[in-house]
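Hello,

Following up on my earlier ticket. Below are the two sequence lines again, exactly as submitted.
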Amino acid sequence: MLWFRRVNNIFSPHDYAFDNVTLSQLCRLMKGVLMHSVTHIKTLNQLEAGTIAEIVRMADCGEAIRRRLHSLGFFEGQSVRVLRSGNPMVVEVMRVRVGMAQSLAEGIGVCQKAVVTAGPGI
Amino acid sequence: MIALAEKPAAVSPHKDLPRVVFVGNPNSGKTTLFNRLTGLRAKTSNFPGTTLEMRSARLMHAEFVDLPGLYSLEGTLEEEQVAEDFLRGLIASSAAHTLVVLVVDATRLARNLFLASQIREIASHSVVALNMTDLARREGLEFDLQGLEQALGTRVFPLSARTGEGVPELKAWLGVWLSSVGAAKQILAPCAMVDCVGCDACPYRARFHWAEAVCGKVTRRRERTSVTRQWTDWLDHWATHPVAGLLIFVAVMAGLFQALFHLAEIPMEWIEGGFEMLRSAAAGYWPSGYWGGFVVNGLLTGLGGLLVFIPQILILFFLISLLEDSGYLARAAVVVDRWMSRVGLPGKAFIPMLSAHACAIPAIMGARAIENRRDRLVTILILPLFSCSARIPVYVMVTAMLFPGAPGIAGLIFTGAYLLGMGAAFAAALVLKGTLLSGTPRPLLIELPDYHLPDLRTALLTAFDRGVIFLRRAGTVIVAIITLLWVATQFPVLPVEAHPFQDQPVGVAAPIEVEQERAQLEYSIVGRVGKAVQPVFAPLGFDWTLTVAVLTSFAAREVLVATLSILHGMGQDAGPGGLAESLRENIPFATGLSLLVFFILAMQCLPTLVITRRETGAWKWALLQLAYMSAVAYMAAFVTYQISSRLW
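Thanks for your patience. The regenerated structure is below:
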């Protein structure tokens, strides 16, 4: 029950067994899971310059575009760094810079990992 | 394992020769390496059955082929798919005689190894050219070549195509391979990739993870930061900025234009002068008769009108190649994309649009850089609306006719003419977006390579190649049609008793030859058609002379000035300024404005029509271009004439 442990970590510092959870508590926890997902998954175009994130979801943007994104290194689990936000935005993936229209970035769900305030960036 | 293409895709025209095929990611330096090995021996031809280009050369008793850049073997672009089919077809037809030279960018090893993993699965014979090792050294990268060879199961040659370092070693190895090609010995070890595929649902992820693992194992980084990347960061800070980037773009393009026009001016004068000398010599050799007339006024005029564009084409493609190789053009596409996409055009369309201000022909050829067919078609269809240099003599003549002694107003009219052309082009793109070619342009997704010094050899070879293609493709058809048009202006022949000098009084200003030319033109097929068609152009204020000029200038816009010169008794060499004086007395102000608007918007360029047909692969697009531009020009000129004739 990975989701359950994850919710536990968010809402309570104490570990407690699944057996002890009442229905109302379970509902509350389920709501927490959803809130957690909503607040932590963003789309690539929502990130500021300097943000490093991991791709967690690729929206259905058509076979041709999906394959093109894949062949450039965009797939679930890959890290990307935003070099310039806006439309088009500039991101770095596998040490390669890529200019990308906002409409494409809107279809890429990411989980923010870090924000680099110093060092290389544009 | 990826299955080979079932259909016997395009195969090499020289089936018996061994093939050396260059494959690699875009910006991996593949073409630079190909050019270094083959030089001027390479020629451009189409992939069989398509209008897409490939470069090939005969070298070391083998056929060397340079394929377009590929990110993977499941490409989505038309060019990628054709190249992939071609490669699979070659391998399927004769795997033992096909060697794949995989060009890999050493500074982007992990990303480039993705394609390597796929090539290794379909090719029986391959070798890896680890390119840009000089730049990698500067970035502090070191490679375990033996480890890379083991991981890929093939030979790896570290080299720099730009400096030539390591290229002789690869060439020597190619020579050895080609001399033993008949033995068809399997030289590859099994690819280590096979062990790690299939354990994951996503083959892309598996391949990239393998590529990253190999890269991590064979690469060692001595320094954390590299000067090249710091430079790229700093330059990109400005070059991709929404405001500063746009200003830089305008400055770079203005510089390109200035260089283009200034550098091309002198060679264009040489060509014009050379053809003038040839015409004089031919006129001296054949002082009269049809043969002389055909050579002087038909063939040499047609050839001269075609070759005069060669300097502009060579310089334009040389400069564009330098900008592309430097890495800037990709940034420019990013900067202008947000504006272009609003009218349904891709960011990459700006390059042909700029070229179109010099000449629509190289611009249409340059539209090949746009991958998506819909985007490419829209771009090609609107390109002739931008004011090309061939329209300038017409603008000069009409503005001098309308506003004598007022250079300020003439300058404003000139600027207005350019703006009207641009506005009409963007409006046409919007209309096409909402009608025939509906849809939005393919969203921008473009790799931005690091900035570096461009390779002069590649730029020179690109320019030379484009010039040859222009001559080969445009030359034959254009000269043939210009010759036909000349015939239509010369036949039927004016009877001797109808010659104007028969009853010409002494002291008439116009020379006899000019009067003869005018009478002949009026009597010819073109003259008769002009008079018959004149009612169609009457609502625009055109008389029969202007109608004939519009018809003859369909071959090329500059012909308008020469035709009007003849019809108004000035001779072919009168020039725009002198002709304006004469026209001012015969043509009303409103007609002049109408003529100007018509020529800004009308296609009036046979070579462009031919090139559109060639590049789109169908007459329907060329005819659509002619029809919509003629209709728009007619309507705009009609409105201009009707309004201005009531005002002035």
